[in-house]
């Protein structure tokens, strides 16, 4: 067995050893990463095969899809005896902003603007995945003045503020985020040569890689470089995920082709993810 193959087994074991497995979240990862660029619709059997690569039972996939359908993420279509699933309009809209953050190739520039959002009632951490941090109560703060894609039940105020006092950087809990990035690097830097994996193993590894990355990067407030500490560990983690993703693409795309998914609707969109056509040594 190759080093990458044994590392994949370790990652699958880690997935199942991290408490209760959130199959619905893995399905969302697979939809956003693999299905969205191929028409956004996939057969139930293909979803079960994809999750089977991660040692997830078909019954668990059906249960997770029922939950996602009930919450408005996906909808089912029937063709004879076959079932297909696709993202709803709500599901697609929810993907748009996180997708930009997941596949960004580098840190963001900053024009000096901030956005404050105020909720009418506490709705848990829904704004966290939009890059906001809580200021206490129902007020949230985000770097940048673009308010597009936010829920329409907010009071949103955008504009240029004063220079950020250094003590206020503690609001972003950068030490916690740095620890998550360090764990990610520890888990994935020994993966070896992903180009040597079989198509099925490449698809499994790609899903696990993006699942791990998505959960970390969407909790990161995405501060611009000018506000980050020198040598920010998140940049090293992003370079690692870009290199590994690049190495997994050919095999995993072959798996998708062999398992009946339609051709990519926009091949250029895949190439733009992490700027995979760039020299990955950069």
What's the short version?
This protein folds into 2 domains: 3-92 and 173-275, Arc Repressor Mutant, subunit A (Orthogonal Bundle); 113-160.
Topology:
Elements: H1 3-17, H2 23-35, E1 41-43, H3 44-52, H4 58-70, E2 74-79, E3 82-87, H5 89-102, E4 113-119, E5 133-134, E6 139-143, E7 154-160, H6 174-188, H7 199-217, H8 233-258, H9 267-272
Antiparallel strand pairs: 1-3, 2-3, 4-6, 4-7, 5-6
Helix pairs in contact: 1-7, 2-7, 6-7, 6-8, 7-8
List keywords for this structure.
7 strands, 13% strand, Arc Repressor Mutant, subunit A, single chain, 46% helix, globular, alpha+beta, 2 domains, 4-stranded antiparallel sheet, 3-stranded antiparallel sheet
Strand order of the largest sheet: 5-6-4-7
Query: Roughly what fraction of the amino acids lie in strands?
Result: 5-15%
Main beta-sheet strand count, sense and barrel state: 4 strands, antiparallel
**Overall tally of domains:** 2
The CATH class label of the largest domain is Mainly Alpha
List segments where confidence is low: pLDDT < 50 over at least 5 consecutive residues. Answer: 278-282
**Tally of DSSP helical segments:** 9
Q: Rg, please?
A: 20 Å
The overall pLDDT average reads: 88
Q: What does the overall shape look like?
A: globular
Considering DSSP H and I runs of 4 or more, what fraction of the residues is helical?
Answer: 40-55%
Number of strands: 7
Calculate the terminal CA-CA distance, rounded to whole Å. Answer: 30 Å
Order of helices and strands: HHEHHEEHEEEEHHHH
| CATH fold node name of the largest domain | Arc Repressor Mutant, subunit A
Q: What structural class do the secondary elements suggest?
A: alpha+beta
CATH level-four homologous superfamily name of the largest domain: Winged helix-like DNA-binding domain superfamily/Winged helix DNA-binding domain
CATH architecture of the largest domain: Orthogonal Bundle
């Amino acid at each position: 067995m190759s080093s990458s193959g044994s590392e994949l087994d370790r990652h699958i074991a880690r997935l199942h050893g991290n408490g209760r497995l959130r199959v619905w979240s893995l399905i969302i990862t697979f939809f956003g990463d693999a299905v969205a660029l191929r028409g956004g619709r996939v057969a139930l059997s293909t979803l079960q095969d994809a999750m089977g690569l991660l040692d997830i039972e078909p019954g668990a996939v059906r249960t997770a899809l029922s939950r996602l359908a009930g919450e408005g993420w996906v909808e089912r279509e029937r063709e004879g005896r076959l079932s297909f699933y696709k993202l709803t309009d709500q599901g697609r809209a929810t993907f748009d902003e996180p997708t930009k953050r997941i596949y960004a190739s580098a840190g963001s520039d900053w024009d000096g603007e901030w956005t404050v959002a105020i909720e009418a009632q506490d709705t848990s951490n829904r704004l966290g995945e939009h890059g906001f941090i809580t200021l206490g109560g129902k007020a949230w703060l985000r770097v940048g003045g673009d308010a597009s894609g936010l829920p329409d039940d907010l009071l949103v105020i955008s504009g240029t503020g004063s220079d950020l006092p250094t003590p206020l950087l503690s609001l972003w809990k950068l030490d916690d985020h740095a620890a998550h990035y360090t764990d990610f690097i520890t888990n994935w830097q020994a993966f070896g040569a992903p180009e040597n994996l079989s198509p099925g193993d490449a698809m499994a590894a790609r899903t696990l890689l993006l699942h791990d990355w998505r959960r970390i990067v969407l909790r990161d407030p995405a501060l611009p470089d000018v506000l980050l500490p020198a040598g920010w560990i998140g940049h090293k983690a992003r370079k690692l995920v870009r290199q590994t993703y690049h190495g997994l693409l050919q095999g995993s795309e072959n798996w998708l082709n062999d398992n009946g998914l339609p051709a990519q609707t926009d091949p250029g969109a895949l190439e733009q993810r992490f700027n995979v056509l760039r020299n990955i040594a950069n």
